[in-house]
């Protein structure tokens, strides 16, 4: 009995909702269908434009990623080359500084030896 009452309630409720929708509609069925058709076409064109714009953004992001990778690789190569050049340039100076430091250490030892003997 409960299932029968529930089904009857749905049918009566659906009929009442349909009748009230028809009686309270702001325009006729023909006008409403025309409005829906125009809205559908407008929405369809907007979605098509949106899809095209999203594809453009995707392609731009892909291109920027590829270009960024290439630029980063080139930058990395340039930095490595600069560091290697810098090392090559300072190597003679480094040896000269080490030699001078050894001379200074020898001179300090000699001074300490002279001071301790006096």
List keywords for this structure.
2 helices, mainly alpha, 118 residues
- Choose one word for the global shape: rod-shaped
Termini separation comes to 126 Å
Task: Determine the strand fraction and express it as a percent band.
Answer: under 5%
What is the number of domains?
Answer: 1
- Name the structural class: mainly alpha
* Strands, total number: 0
Uncertain residue segments: none
Estimate percent helicity.
over 70%
Instruction: Report the radius of gyration as a whole number of Å.
Output: 44 Å
Mean pLDDT: 84
- Following the backbone from N to C, one meets helices and strands in this order, namely HH
| Major sheet | none
Please count the helical segments.
2
Describe the structure.
This protein has 2 helices and no strands. The protein has 118 residues and is an all-alpha fold. The chain has one domain. The model has no long low-confidence stretch (mean pLDDT 84).
How does the SSE layout of this entry go?
Elements: H1 2-24, H2 29-117
In short:
By secondary structure, this protein is an all-alpha fold. It contains 2 helices and no strands. The protein is rod-shaped.
